[in-house]
Amino acid sequence: xxxxxxxxxxxxxxxxxxxxxxxxxxxxxxxxxxxxxxxxxxxxxxxxxxxxxxxxxxxxxxxxxxxxxxxxxxxxxxxxxxxxxxxxxxxxxxxxxxxxxxxxxxxxx
Length: 109
Description:
This protein is of the alpha+beta class. It has one domain (7-103): Winged helix-like DNA-binding domain superfamily/Winged helix DNA-binding domain (Arc Repressor Mutant, subunit A, Orthogonal Bundle). It is built from four helices and three strands. Helix 1 (7-19) crosses helix 2 (24-34) and helix 1 crosses helix 4. The chain is elongated, with a radius of gyration of 16 Å. The model has no long low-confidence stretch (mean pLDDT 92).
């Protein structure tokens, strides 16, 4: 399933907000799990997004050891990232409410 521009970034940010620091593989699996496996993230999609979010200051990363004892880069939400989550969440809630009004319109007989 394809998602709209900017949607995946919000999904990643919300995942980090809820779960705390995670490595890329953990982020991908959690997004897939929350989507009910409707989304499948691959490295070519996720890692450029993580790099972009880090360059924008929404997330920060540091090297650590994963649960299977491998070196991994762990990503965490920054203060700016938390502000971005709040703003984007508000925007999406307003957008979905607006679209919901149009989806609720019934055809006139």
